[in-house]
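Student: Hello, beginner here. Can you help me understand the protein record under this note? Any guidance would be welcome.
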Amino acid sequence: MSAVSMSGAWRIRVVSKESAYAQRVVFSGDVQKMLSGEVGASTSASGRRWSLRFEHNRGDGVWRPNASVEAGEIVRHGDEFERWIATKDVFWCADRGHDDLKLLLTRPASAAGSAGEAVGVAYAADLYELPTALVLPSVDTPDVRHERQRSYSQPMSPGTPLRRRSL
């Protein structure tokens, strides 16, 4: 995953940097900005859909995308939602850990909005309640066409009806 998609209002803070290369976070979508990858740097972002991309500079003035990003799930911690993101800029033989840049994203639980912004997902979805009068047909009524299992040894055969077991 090279970019992490988000939605809503979040506070983003760089909590650790274990790379010799300069790091930065590039925001896109509803949020257009950059955050320096220095420990303690922070900013806020708010929008319907926005994403974070992670880049490093080897000292030659060229910003390159980080090789890998590990984004944790959104979890509730006390009265806040939190999400940890760790990146790896370049994979080396002896260094394969995602510790080059670590971010902590937080937002107050009261600002979580609707129930559609559930813990464990990085996007919002509208949830609609089904009407109580909605009745779905039973799978064993005469109104439902039976599925047929086709025979591959006999092309164009109508197939054999599948039988459902009673539980």
User: Anything to note?
Assistant: Residues 78 and 109 are 8 Å apart (CA to CA). The chain is about 0% helix and 45% strand.
